[in-house]
Specification:
By secondary structure, the protein is mainly alpha-helical. The chain is built from 16 helices and four strands. It has one domain: Glycosyltransferase. The strands form two sheets. Strands 1-2 form a two-stranded antiparallel ribbon. Strands 3-4 form a two-stranded antiparallel sheet. A hairpin with a 2-residue loop joins strand 1 and strand 2. The chain is globular. The N terminus is likely disordered.
Length: 455
């Protein structure tokens, strides 16, 4: 049978031939034109609304958290979570993986779980996660629970306990206050027991500082010298332009984002809340920053400058430079941006809309882009970056380590009617620059005149 609409031998009357031809042409051309129009609109206006972004963030956070928290609430995380270790694993106690998984996940989603319950789909997800989390916190320090965490699993415990502490501080009213008194006492005892380990002379000092500052914050017996050492060294290692070195020498990686900037700030927040004018714990000789309360202001300014740098690292396509160690932590690179947004202290150069759109672009590129199979069939994160790449793991990396990526989700702790979510979509700086739009210039910041005396 010949379907050519140009066949003059067709038995169809000529008028019907023309009508069939027009219909067939419409069926082919209209969808093509509609696709082209939609593609053009997507190219010219690819930024979603805040409501759309929030739905995406919440859904992804729930997908990431549910397998971990449901299992740990039931005491089955260590039974059901299949461990994935770095090809260069250093043979440390594997039990550290579960504390890494739980603590790092909770450090990111704790702000979200502090929001009040509501009947929205998001509210139902949030309520379920909070209920699981409270049971999980209890199991974490209950020696009779199968999911009692490895509080005596070696020096790595200093690192991972700090993220557990960070989550309890960030979600204090929703996650710490509801715990029963026995569970709270157990946490204090476990944290005090970590004094058996001494940290190396790096960002690890801040893990110790977080643990001791939290003990102070909740009214326990703390080690003042461990706090003092952490805060003194962090200040000593500030090198300018919003950046700290990781110990005496500088490393070009994202540890300013993963650890140094956020935890230095939070140590000062906790000390400031309890002993804001204690010049033994927090002192900067020769300036007006004596005491945690005054130094905190300066440290937040530095994080604001660093966040300006991070925002400019986000490319027009929603990527960032893949440099340095611990790159499988994925979205944790953006933690300072997320934290300042949640604290409502973004610098004036950064608007809510551009930060939200920039983080969302990276999130979607990482979890929905080509090759983005970041989850195992049973729902846990897998070692990699955009997909599974065991070769990018460091010798300390396991699949529990990867839950650091949740740290970018902190703005979910802002209610849906907050300007972060309701402000109009806006291009981030690199997208403006590379698409020919006007954009603000960057500049050198915070000259240390004691060193750069010629400035």
């Amino acid at each position: 049978m010949n379907y050519s609409i140009c066949n003059t031998n067709s038995s169809l009357p000529s008028g019907r031939v023309r009508r069939w031809g027009i219909l067939l042409l419409a069926l082919i051309v209209v969808p093509v034109l509609a696709f082209a129009k939609g593609k053009k609109q997507a190219e010219t206006n690819p930024l979603g609304t805040g409501a759309e972004d929030r739905v995406y963030w919440a859904s992804l956070a729930y997908k990431m958290a549910a397998p971990v928290l449901e299992n740990m609430a039931n005491g089955t995380l260590q039974k059901n979570m299949k461990l994935e270790l770095s090809p260069t694993w250093d043979n440390r106690d594997k039990k550290v993986a579960y504390m890494e998984c739980f603590g790092r996940l909770m450090a990111g989603i704790a702000p979200w779980l502090t929001l009040p319950d509501d009947d929205t789909d998001e509210g139902k997800m949030r309520k379920q996660l909070r209920e699981w989390a409270l049971k999980a916190y209890k199991n974490a320090v209950d020696p009779e629970s199968p999911d009692y965490l490895g509080w005596r699993s070696g020096g790595q415990t200093l690192v991972d306990a700090a993220y557990v502490v960070e989550s309890l501080f960030r979600g204090y009213k929703a996650l710490w206050e509801p715990l029963d008194s026995l569970t709270k006492q157990r946490y204090i005892k476990e944290l005090q027991g970590l004094r058996r380990y001494d940290p190396p002379y790096t960002n690890w000092l801040l893990f110790v500082g977080m643990e001791e500052a939290f003990i102070m914050y909740v009214g326990g017996q703390y080690d003042a010298f461990r706090i003092k050492m952490a805060l003194s060294k962090a200040e000593e290692w500030y090198i300018g332009d919003g950046l700290y070195s990781d110990g005496p020498s500088f490393a070009f990686d994202y540890y300013n984002a993963y650890v140094i900037q956020p935890m230095y700030t939070e140590c000062l927040q906790m000390v400031s809340a309890r002993q804001g004018n204690n010049s033994y714990l927090v002192r900067s000789k020769g300036d007006n920053r004596n005491g945690a309360t005054n130094r905190l202001k300066e440290v937040v300014k530095r994080m604001q400058k660093y966040s300006v740098i991070l925002e400019r690292f986000i490319s027009p396509e929603g990527t960032f430079p893949v440099v340095g160690r611990s790159i499988p932590y994925r979205l944790a690179v953006l933690q300072p941006l997320a934290q300042l947004a949640w604290m409502k202290q973004l610098p004036g150069e950064l608007h809510n809309g551009q930060v939200r759109c920039g983080i969302t672009a990276v999130m979607k590129r990482m979890f929905e882009g080509k090759g983005a199979s970041n989850f195992t069939p049973d729902g846990y994160l897998t070692i990699g970056f955009v997909g599974s790449h065991p070769n990018v793991a460091d010798w300390y990396t396991n699949n529990g380590s990867l839950y650091m990526t949740s740290l970018a989700f902190m703005p979910l702790g802002l209610p849906a009617d907050d300007p972060f979510w309701t402000d109009a979509p806006e291009k981030w700086t690199s997208k403006k620059a590379w698409e020919g739009d006007d954009f603000p210039k960057d500049h050198k910041w915070d000259i240390n005149r004691q060193i750069l005396y010629w400035e």
